[in-house]
Each structure stands twice: as structure tokens, then as C-alpha cells.
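Worked example 3. Consider a protein that binds iron/sulfur cluster.
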Amino acid sequence: MKELIVVGNGMAPSRALEKLNEKDPDAYNVTIFNAEPRVSYNRVMLSPVLSGEEDFEKTIIHGDDWYFKHNFILYRGCPVTEIDRESKTVKAVNGIAEPYDKLLIATGSSPIKLSVPGIDKKGVLSYRDLDDVKAMLAAAETRRQAVVIGGGLLGLEAAAGLRNRGMEVTVVHRNPTLMDRQLDETAGHLLQLAIESLGIRVLTGRHTKAITGDEHVEGVLFRDGSSIQADIVVMAVGIRPSVWLAENAGLHIERGIVVDKHMRTSDPDILAIGECAEFQGATYGLLAPLYEMANVAAATLLGDEEQQFENRVTAAQLKVTGIDLYSAGDFAEGDNREEIVLRDPNQGVYRRLVIEDDRLVGTVLYGDTSSMGWYYQMIKDNTDISGIRDYMIFGPGFAEGAAQDPTAAVASLPDDAEICGCNGITKGAIRQAIDGNSLTTLEGVRSCTKASSSCGSCTGLVEQLLLLRLGDSYQPAEVKPVCGCTDLGHSDVRRLINARSIKTIPDLMQELEWKSSGGCAKCRPALNYYLLATWPGEYVDDNQSRFINERVHANIQKDGTYSVVPRMWGGVTSSSELRAIADVVDKFDIPAVKVTGGQRIDMLGVKKEDLPAVWADLNSVGLVSGHAYGKAIRTVKTCVGKEWCRFGTQNSTRLGIRLEKFLWGSWTPAKVKMAVSGCPRNCAEATCKDVGVVCVESGYDVHFAGAAGMDVKETELLGHVDNEDDAIEMVAAVVQLYREQGHYLERIYKWARRVGVDSIRDAVVDDAANRKALCERFVHSQKYYQIDPWEERVKGHAQHEFAPLRELSSLELT
Amino acid sequence: MSSECWTSIGNLEDIPVAGARVVLSPGCRIAVFRTEDNQIFALEDRCPHRKGPISQGIVHGKKVTCPLHNLVINLTDGEASEDGCVPVCTISARIGESGEVLLNIEDIRARVETSAG
Ligand code: SRM
Ligand SMILES: Cc1cc2nc3c(=O)[nH]c(=O)nc-3n(C[C@H](O)[C@H](O)[C@H](O)COP(=O)(O)OP(=O)(O)OC[C@H]3O[C@@H](n4cnc5c(N)ncnc54)[C@H](O)[C@@H]3O)c2cc1C
Ligand code: SF4
Ligand code: FES
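Given these inputs, the predicted complex is written out as C-alpha cells:
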């Protein structure tokens, strides 16, 4: 008989030996070396062992009797130290040496250790084998705080296990979302909520800098300077194929030990399988393909060339009780790939299908994984899905049965069926309202019954009811979607943000079932504005969702340089401001200086890297950003007014300055330009502005909804007030109403046209209490947004925007 | 590929998620993008339309929208959303084991040579 030596006794070689036994038990004398001091067990079950849901004994694949019965010699706790290919012998610790005819290497992987100071302290563990689990269990007995570094499959399983054992657990993840290799941002966020609901703390975007403590770990320090306490630290940041043994033997290594389709390494007498093997550039960390490798290796060892290994679709499932998460295949976005996303926030379900050339190539299922087998099969079989594409996202039941007719479904509901859960409105009530009031629109039903006016999730049902009562004469009002990522219009998005208290962009995309996984350049800035206007102080501005001008607080020019426009309150300046501007122009060699149409000065052609230094100099005399780049309050133009002008009726310059100082810094749906003129001669052109004030003998006429850009339109009179303070309150109130109702990029005159000038007058002029409330909300929001963004950046905020990441030298390129 | 072909330009975390940074090289500007799912792409920082700095655009999915006139460019292959545009030149990029971002020198050299010629 020939000698077969196996290095490593993990799951892959166990399967290979089973196969060998089945086919030809007499082909080889088998000797196994295992570094772990035990028989073969199911590594996958370590998580249930850790959490206490399974006993270790139950995870043993082959007990001692199995090795004895098959006459396999198993050296336990006996790592192989050298392979001598000349003499075809392996050498292990304790001087053991054994000759081989064929050698099977299955050394698996080892956990990656971060190269940070303190990594070797006591209490820093990895999660790979039973010894690790034992160490964790021992720690859980006596210690309280565990930190798991790494928010992937393994890290989360370790965290859940330790939590189950009563420890206080924090998961630290380097990227912004958990399991970011499998999930997009929104699904990652759902997962985070679920993990947190198990009582586990999650910290994302943290980079570990050092492990602190004396001999034993006491804490973890992050690069941002923050730190947390830890009694034990579990590293689950990834695995690396264990190849040193094969490498020392001179075998061909890339990331793993390179094998051919028969699992042969560069030495035909040596085979490799499992996590240590690399086939056509891929290594595997999941069982299914490793078992396939084992089958092929057994065949090869018996001289059967028929069986060949092929790259396989892999699937992974998170084994944390109460959380259903499954991913299979290749779910990265790609060029010719499309995705179908289904989000059902009520059920906590998320599904993503990735399709390429009418084939399903990958899927991520969260919340409900019952269809995983169905999708997996399609991926594996490369099934043509063009016929079921439109509804396959709903799962096999739906796709295979006939699609239900939604109108018929609503028709069959009894009259007392509740349609609108928020307001408790039944089908009967809606039907009566439609018939009794001759309603023909969704808006009509909303104002008459309140159905569909809160969270909006019953809107579809209400529309079906309208269709049922009115037949073809029902024409749903056409809503222009925000962009291709959703069917919802701007108003619906704003309403739902309020009704459902949505507070982040990823939550919004999940809740409102966004069709793309990261939005687009159209919806992201709009959503960012809606959230910051709705939740001042709570919402964290997302800079990456802002257009470049707002991101760097300067206007980009056609050659990639920027312009800088400081505020000149009400168009008034001084010699020291002008001198500072002149000095900056000289110092930074700024090619153009221009007086703008907004009564201030524009410095054009500033290099991006110079911006912070330019701002620092301007700040030093008190000049702040003019927001000439923003969907924000721009300028308040004024005329000289009563102080100088022989026709002046009020101090228009002072009112303009007060208005600008009160309003600056606030973000608005589109830009807001204002002016104050001292008399009806109107030299400041107040009657073509978004908001304009015309002073008269008796006080102040407040105008709004003018335009003088692509459209030219005279303003509407909003109301008349007697004094400056009231003028300011009225202006702030109308601006706030616009901030709350406007669609992104909709100027004030378009907003007024859409909602009706009268409705605005009602809210701002006739209802004094409402005016006050609007003004108070504006003041509240200003607490958070009236900050000079230039000063912040001069002080060091967002420096990465202004400096190149690196400059390569010409030397490096030659 | 031999290791000399790659040069490190900084760490993944130096680039904002769904954002970009610029790398200057003699003869060309390179925009290095990081997507929401932490993939890295490097392209010449020059829009085929009117040379807009695409590094300054909004990054969404594996695309960027040029800040000057909203052309949408695929980060994977540099193709633009509008027909008839020459694709933006791409440079192979990858993330090293300890999170450093690596650019392929050969690709940069090739770019510099074509633009010189
Ligand atoms: C600098 C200035 C022209 C000048 O040299 O005077 C100017 C320059 C620009 N205007 Fe303007 N507008 C300027 C006054 C105006 C005015 C007159 C005014 O404000 O009294 C108007 C008509 C009023 C109005 O806003 O409707 C005006 C109507 C526009 C429009 C059309 C807006 C519309 O809704 O119809 C745009 C395009 C846009 O905003 O989408 C625009 C856009 C621009 C942009 C921002 C184009 C861009 O996106 O890059 C220009 C930026 C140049 C820069 O980098 O500084 N600019 N622009 C004026 C700056 C005023 C200021 O101090 O902030
Ligand atoms: C906690 C946990 C949960 C998992 N969950 C899943 C899951 O749900 N689904 C899934 O598909 N996969 C899962 N995996 C991955 C799966 O367990 C592995 O892919 C699989 O066990 C790898 O098998 P292997 O035989 O290649 O290597 P291993 O099982 O790692 O075996 C390698 C063995 O070789 C020994 N060895 C190394 N060097 C030497 C040497 N020089 N001499 C002698 N012996 C040596 C090692 O001690 C080790 O025992 C999980 C893994 C872990 C750790
Ligand atoms: S009018 Fe046109 S060209 Fe002139 S500054 Fe305004 S946007 Fe630019
Ligand atoms: S320069 Fe990029 S779109 Fe015009």
C-alpha cells in the first residue's frame, strides 16, 4: 500500500478521507498530523457552542473510534514543521518523520492580527478554533467587558455568543456599515439595529490604533483619539491562508497554495485543499466549495481524472439567533449589472438581486431568508430569468403563481376592513366619502377622511378604491418622481420624513423603498436638505451628498478653480474690508476681481489649495462666507435710503443689514435673494426678488415670489407692517414656511405658484400665532446653521477637501 | 504582477466614503474614488466633455456626476453616460493588506506618455 500523509485535520480533509474510504479503503495507509490536539470537528458549529446553544460533543465529526476502525494514524497537537520533497518525508515536532507517496496539505487559514501596538497582550483572542472558544468562555465567567474588532460574519457571531454568555459587548468596525462586503449601506443599517437590539453596542468607522493595558488588555484606543474599556478583545478582522509550510517547501504560492483542477499543487505528488488552496485566483472561506475540493482530491488520489473542480457560487448565512441574513454569489455592483431591490420596512425585509445578462448572479436576503434555496438554485444553474424578472423579487410563491389583480383584491375586502391604520379609517368610510362628496382625487380623500394623509403606506389601497368607484374616469394625479431612484414625488418624501420620523439618508432609502442602493446626484442633495431642514440639530449633515460648491464653500469655475465671495452686509463695506480684499488678491495672485450683481465683490480664479488661507485672511477683518455657492440665503441688496436719499422714507440700509445678519447661514430649497428699497422708486430692485421690502411713509410693504433670472416676474405683496421688527418677523416666517414646504431646487415663486399665494398669506399674515411659531422654528434652526463655514475650515475642518492626497514625482514613474 | 508596479498613495481612510481625492503626477491629475462599499477606482481627473475635474463630483454607486455639466461617468471603465464621449482613462487601483491604496505605476506612465504625444 502507498503512504498518504495529510497535514491538517479540518473539515476539508475529513471529507476527503470519507470519500477515499468509500471508494477504495485499501488504496493508502493514512497518517494525519494535526496542530490542534483533537479529532475532527465541525468548525461552523463553534458559534452555537460559544453562545451555549450547542454542546461541543455534538460537533465532533469523527470520534477516536472512526480513526481506529479505518486504521488511520492521527497525531494530535503535532504540527508539521517541514516538508522535504527530495526524500518525500514530512517532519513534525518532537522529531517525528514520516515518508509519503502522496501528500495532502489542508492547513486552513489563520486569523489576521492587526499590526498595532499591544496586540500580544493577554486577553487578546482570535476566533478560529475550540481553544479560542474555551478562552472566551473562561473570560465570560470572570470578566465583564468584551470588545470584538471586526463587524463581519465571524465578528458578529462572536459578539452574539459573548452577549449570550452575559458579557457587555461592543463591536468595532472599521467601515461605516457592518458586513459591508455583503450588504449595502441600508441593509447594513438594518442589521446594525438588529444587533443593537440584542444589547450589543456597535461602533462603526473606528480604526484601532492600539491595545492598551499592562500585561493584560485594559482597553482599545482608536485613531480618532477615542477609546473604550475592554477585559477581552476578540480579533475577527479576516483570515489569511496558512501557506508557510508549503512555501518553505518551494511550492507555487500566490495568496494561497496554487492548485489545478485536480487539486494538484506545482508538485504533482502534493495536493492541497481547503482554505489554504487557491484555484484560478480564488480562495474560499466557506464549506460548500471546500467539500467539493475534497471530493475532487479523493478522486485524484485514486487516479480518477474525470472529476474536476470548478469555481463555485458561495453562499453565507449569519448564525445569530433572531437575525436572518443570507448572501450568495457575487453581489458586487458592476458595469453590465442591474439590481432589483425590495424593501419592506414594516416586515423588516430587504432583498437584493443582482442580474447580469438575464441571469441571476447574486443575492442578499435580510429578514426573510425563506426563498434562499430558490435563488441559490437559479444562480447555480445560470437560469435564464427574463420571463420572471418583473416579479422574481417577491419570491417563488409569487413568481410561480399568477400575479394577483390588486383591484380585485381590494374589491373583495369587507366594508369594515381597516384601510388606513394610522387614522383608523375603514373601507366603508372611504367608499361613502367618495360617493357622498363626489370625490375624484386622492387629495380629496385625504382631506375628507384623513385616510392616507399620515404615513402614506395605504395610498395604493386608497387609489384602488377610487379606481373601483370611478372606473376609468379616475385619473391619478401625476406625481413627478424625485428622480429615477423612486416613484415618490418631493411632497410625499417630505411628508413621510415627518410622519415616520426618518432621520438619516440610509434609513430613508430603506423605509421609502429606494430602488437604487446609493441614490444618485439628483436625490442625494435633496434628501440631505429635507433632513437637515426637518431635524435641525439632530441630523448630521452628509457632506458627500452635497454638490461640490456647498461641499467646499466656494463656486467651482470652468477651469476647476474657485471663486470667493464674502458677505458685505446689505451691500455696505468699509476701507478695512476693501483693504483686506485687495491684499488677498495680491498675496494669492487672484486673476480677477469683480463687483457682482448682488452688491458685493467676487474674487475669481482662486486655486483650491489656497482657499483656506484666503479665508483666514478675510476672516481676520471679520469677512465671512457670502454663500454665493449655496442653496441658501444669498444677499440682501439695499439702497442708501432715508439716511442720505432725498426721497427715502425709512432706513432701508439698516433693515437690509439686520435682515441679512438674522437670516444668513440658513439652508433653503433653492437660493434666496432679497432686497430692501427705501421708497417705491425701488433702486434696490426689491420687486423682482425672492423676498423684497419696499419702504413707504406708513411702514414696510413685504413682497415675495419675484424672479429675474430665467423667468422674470414681479413680486406679490405679502403684507404690510409698521416697524422693522415686524418686517423681520414676517420675512423670517415666509422663509421658514418655504423651507418647510419647498421642493428642492424650487425657487420661492415656483413654490408660491404650486401651493397658492393665498395659502401662504393665510399662514404668514392672517394667522399671527402661526407666524410667531414659524419664526421660532427659524430661530431654532439658526442655532445650528448660523456658523461661518469658512472659519470652521480655517480651524481645520474637512482639510482633506483642499489638499491633494499625494504628489508623485517623475522619478517614481521612470 | 510584480510588486514594483504599484505605488502607495495613502490610506483608504484618507478618502471620504462616497468621495474622492486627487493625486498629482507629472503630466496628469488622477482622481481616486472610494465608493460606499469601499471599493477604490482611479481615473484621470478630466471629464471628456470639457475637462471638468470629475474628482469634485457627487459619487453614487459606482458612478460620479461631473460637477460642471452633470455628465455621469462609470468609475469601473471610465465610460460616460452620453454617446460619443471618449471614455475617461482608468488606472488600476487596489487596496493593500493593511488598508493602503495602491495605484498601478504602469498605467500612470502609459497615461502620461499618451498625453505627451
Ligand atoms: C457673480 C454673479 C454675476 C455677476 O458677476 O454679477 C453671478 C454669477 C453666477 N450666477 Fe447668477 N450671478 C449673480 C447675480 C445674479 C442675479 C442678480 C441678482 O442676484 O441680483 C440673477 C437674477 C436673479 C435670480 O437669482 O433669479 C442671477 C441669476 C442666476 C441664475 C438663474 C436663476 C433662476 O432661477 O432663474 C443662475 C442659475 C441657477 O442658479 O441655477 C445663476 C448662477 C450663477 C452662477 C452661480 C453659475 C454657476 O452655477 O456657476 C454664477 C457663479 C459665478 C461665481 O463663481 O461667482 N445666476 N444671478 C452675481 C452674484 C451675485 C452675488 O453677489 O451673489
Ligand atoms: C466560528 C466560525 C464559524 C464559521 N461559520 C461558517 C458557516 O456558517 N458556513 C460556512 O460555510 N463556513 C463557516 N466557517 C468557515 C469554515 O469553518 C471553514 O471554511 C472550514 O472549516 C475550513 O476548513 P479547512 O479544512 O480548510 O481548514 P481548517 O478547518 O481551518 O483546518 C485546518 C487545520 O489544520 C491545522 N494545521 C495548520 N497548520 C498545520 C501544520 N503545520 N501541521 C498540522 N496541522 C496544521 C490547524 O490546526 C487546523 O486544525 C466558519 C468558521 C469559523 C471559525
Ligand atoms: S449670466 Fe450666465 S454667464 Fe453670466 S455669470 Fe450668470 S450664469 Fe454665468
Ligand atoms: S466638463 Fe464634465 S460635464 Fe462638462
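Take a moment to read the result before moving on. The first strand of chain A starts at residue 2 and ends at 7. Chain A is about 35% helix and 20% strand.
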